[in-house]
Write a structure and sequence with these properties.
Number of strands: 14
Number of helices: 7
Order of helices and strands: EEHEHHEHHEEHEHEEEEEEE
CATH superfamily of the largest domain: Glycosidases
Largest sheet: 7 strands, mixed
Strand content: 15-25%
Oligomer: single chain
Number of domains: 2
CATH class of the largest domain: Alpha Beta
Radius of gyration: 23 Å
């Protein structure tokens, strides 16, 4: 399972985006040559390759930030089942398997993100999370750059971590006071690859943009998951979705990358979201108005306000009505110059 992500007001070292590879999921197979996972790793069996290392090299060559996902638990490991039977009063699996894997990942690959999971059955004291995190942030090779999420023991979600996941597909309805990330999957029914996946199980591009804007407008990041096949290839439908998002961001990324939440996140009962950067405000909308007049109720205006659409250099005509907001005429945009998008961005900026 690979996680391809885009960012809003991202982590300080993630200016453009980040990629997180599932180094180990709940079944225990490690995608690197872990010394504590003999014959159940990607060197000894399967591709006979160091997938964590190979992907990390490729990602960093593209100036993206690299992270690793690691599941603490192992559904089938005898030591984990032994500790679970003992109500986690013993720590054989945590000490002999989970923690050595985490230390090994950090020392070998120096990831900038540790995306922990599989914590929910046992408390953080079982996993010795505080001990590992103290080392990670004080003595590890990535102590000055690394960030972690909040899945380090039962009950830790939304309470402890460099950024919060809180729950899968979590979306707040008001501005959080802590950096957060929404993790969701292109296949709405699975985080991995399914041979019986149907087209209507897959998010369309507009739905992905909805998820992106629901995250970025509230100050969060979006982690968008895709599941490769067992051969390591990306299914064509996932490629199409990622390429379409890349094309959309090529035009509209100014409203996403390094943006910050505005005083209003979203228009009530509409598909209009706001972000800001400096003195500029961006309004992203996914429904083209039938009368070609876009009404933005939240912004105020002044005579020196310039209104444009990202991807089109010519200014748009607009008028402000107190109590009703700004009305922007879109009819002056030639259909031959309009970007073929699932969503569009209007930029309001002060020109003096």
């Amino acid at each position: 399972m690979t996680c391809a992500t885009t960012v809003g007001d991202g982590y300080t070292h993630a200016d453009l985006g980040y990629v997180v590879l599932t180094a180990k999921h709940h079944e225990g197979f490690t995608n690197w040559g872990s010394s504590v996972s003999w014959n159940w790793n990607s060197i000894d069996t399967g591709p006979h390759r160091d997938l964590v290392g190979d992907l990390g090299t490729a990602v960093r060559k593209r100036n993206l930030t690299y992270g690793v996902y690691h599941s603490l638990l192992d559904w089938f490991h005898p030591l984990y089942l032994y500790d679970k039977k003992n109500h986690f009063k013993t720590q054989k699996f945590a000490v002999e398997q989970a923690l050595p894997e985490l230390y090994d990942l950090v020392m070998r690959y120096k990831p900038d993100i540790i995306w922990s999971d599989g914590d929910w059955e046992a408390p953080d004291t079982y996993w010795n999370s505080t001990g590992f995190l103290a080392w990670l942030y004080n003595d590890s090779p990535v102590k000055d750059t690394v960030v972690t999420n909040d899945r380090w023991g039962a009950g830790c979600g939304c309470k402890h971590g460099g950024f919060f996941n809180c729950a899968d597909k979590y979306s707040p309805t008001k501005m959080p006071h802590h950096k957060w990330e929404k993790c969701t999957s292109v296949d709405t029914h699975s985080w991995g690859y399914r041979r019986n996946m149907h087209l209507n199980d897959v998010m369309d591009v507009e739905s992905i943009i909805h998820n992106l804007m629901d995250a970025v407008s509230f100050g969060g990041n979006l982690l968008l998951n895709i599941g490769p096949t067992k051969e390591g290839t990306i299914p064509v439908i996932f490629q199409e979705r990622l390429e379409a998002m890349g094309q959309w961001l090529n035009v509209n990324g100014e409203a996403i990358y390094a943006s910050k939440p505005w005083r209003v996140q979203k228009e009530n009962s509409t598909n209009i979201w706001y972000t800001s950067k400096g003195s500029s405000v961006y309004a992203v909308f996914t429904k083209w108005p039938t009368d070609n007049i876009l009404n933005l109720q939240s912004p105020k205006s002044s005579p020196d306000t310039k209104v444009t659409m990202l991807g089109i250099p010519e200014p748009l005509k607009w008028r402000y009505y107190p109590g009703q907001g700004i009305f922007i005429a879109l009819s002056f945009i030639s259909p031959f110059t309009l970007p073929p998008e699932n969503a569009w961005t209007v930029k309001l900026e002060r020109v003096s």
